[in-house]
Structure formats: structure tokens, C-alpha cells
Amino acid sequence: MALDFLAGCLGGAAGVIVGHPFDTVKVRLQVQSVSKPLYRGTFHCFQSIVRQESLLGLYKGIGSPMMGLTFINAIVFGVQGNAMRRLGKDTPLNQFLAGAAAGAIQCVICCPMELAKTRMQMQGTGEKKSTRKLYKNSLDCLVRIYNKEGFKGINRGMVSTLVRETPGFGVYFMTYDVLTRSLGCEPEDSYMIPKLLFAGGMAGIASWISTYPMDVIKSRLQADGVGGVNQYSGITDCVRQSWKQEGWRLLTRGLTSTLLRAFPVNATTFATVTLFLMYMRGNEEPMDCEPTPHALQPQSQTSSL
């Protein structure tokens, strides 16, 4: 259990480092003003951040997901593993149910973590050297929000996070299980690593597509109030206002950067976890691809997801 936990932490950390720049782009696109947009699309946003805020601008808020990975992976490992043991049979449906349970419970850590990440990513938009830094770092961000808004403040967006993470993790685990079964990953297979990369990347993409509209709403709710004025009173009001202003485009705001991020993040996570476990176990016990999905933070989810 301890070895799996450590592997998950390493895999999650690798995924965050690879995917965080695109996560920053995603959040900026999701919450930008429709009437006065700063960015025309994914690549324009990427270029603008580098030009205006330097390369480090793409890594704003990375402290929050890195800080929360240990706790998130611990929860995901424990819940998903125990759920599978209780369900008995290793089937795609049971993988979905176990993943959904893990996704729901890890929201306790995921929601505050993503709140801090979102606020840090929005801070100093368009400024190379921000003269009005509201938050020093992710921890300071959470402390300030708690002092101002209390427990409710640091859990802003909890319901939307729960609605996103529960089916998202379920789809992720189920997709990965189906793909690894279909591809026939085995330790002696010379193409095992490419298969793992493909299965993990595609599982991440499937997971994000299945819940993406709710991620847009979650980002907007968590970014709401950064300028001192709250625009939305809740999920329903956010959906109503966003749909009125944007229509169906609301459903895909920032999706390109999310999918560009999803494949390398999840592919990196799975490759890191599997290779680490194989090295540490030294082939003393049989291992295939299927135990490794317990390691993902989709939304690490961050993606998570």
C-alpha cells in the first residue's frame, strides 16, 4: 500500500509539471469576459501569457496542486482499492463505481486546492510584474479566503466539483480498464510503455469530455469575486447568465487547451507509476497495467482529471 501511495504521488507530480501551463490557459479562457475578451483562443492565450507575464506566468498556482497531491492520491488509492475489494469482481462497471466513489470523496481536498490554484492563476493577468499581489502563494490565498469568508469561502465550488469529479473519475477508471484489456498490456511486451501512454492519455481525454461543461461552471464560480464583486449567486445563476451571454459556446470554452493537456498529463502519470512500481518490485510479483489507475488525479486533477 505504501509503495503504491508513493508511486501515485510521483506520477501525479510528474503530471502536474507537464500539464500545468495548459491548465493556466484553460482557466484564463474559461473565465475571461465575453464582451471584452483578452484572448482569441488557446494559442493566442499561451503566447500572450508568455509575452506579458514571462514563462513563469504559465506556472502560476502550481504550488496548490503540488501541495495537495499527497492527500488526494492517498484518498483515491484507499477508496478505490477498498471499493474494488468490496465489489469483488474486476469489471469495467465496478471500475466505474469504485472510481466514482474515489472521485466524490477526494473533493474534500480537491475543491480548496483548485480554488487556490484558480485564484493564483487569475492574479496579475497581463502583468509581467504584478504591483498589486493579493496572494503571496497558494497557502496564503487559502488563509486569506478563510479569514474573510470562513469555511464556506474555502469550499466555494464544492457542489460543482462534486458533480464533475464523481462521474469523471468513474469514466476515467472504466476507460483505462477497457483500453488496457483491449491492448493486452503485459510486462514482457516490448510495446508496454507506448500502450500505457496511449491508454492513460485517452482515458484522460474521455474523462474530461464527459464532464467538461461542469468544469467551466466550477472555474467561473471559483474565480468569481477576484475583483471584489461577486457576479454569480450559485451554480444555477452561473449557468443561466453564461448561457444567456454565450449560448452553446459555454460548453467548449477552453476545451482545446484541456485536451492538449489531458493526454500528456495522464500518459506521463501512468508511465511514471508503472515504471516505478516495476523497478521497486523487481518483478518479484506479477504485475500488469490494470492496478495503476488508482494513481490518477484527473481534474489533478488535476485534474484534475
Overview of the molecule:
- The protein is mainly α and 305 residues long.
- The chain is built from ten helices and no strands.
Topology readout:
Layout: H1 2-31, H2 42-53, H3 63-87, H4 92-105, H5 107-122, H6 138-154, H7 158-183, H8 192-223, H9 235-246, H10 255-281
Strand content: under 5%
| Average residue-wise pLDDT | 80
End-to-end gap: 22 Å
What's the total number of strands? Answer: 0
SSE string: HHHHHHHHHH
Unreliable sequence segments: 291-305
Count of helical regions:
10
What Rg is obtained from the alpha carbons, in whole angstroms?
19 Å
Biggest beta-sheet profile = none
Structural class: mainly alpha
Helix content: 55-70%
Shape: globular
Briefly, what is this?
This protein is mainly alpha-helical.
Descriptive terms for the model:
single chain; 10 helices; mainly alpha; globular; disordered C terminus; 305 residues
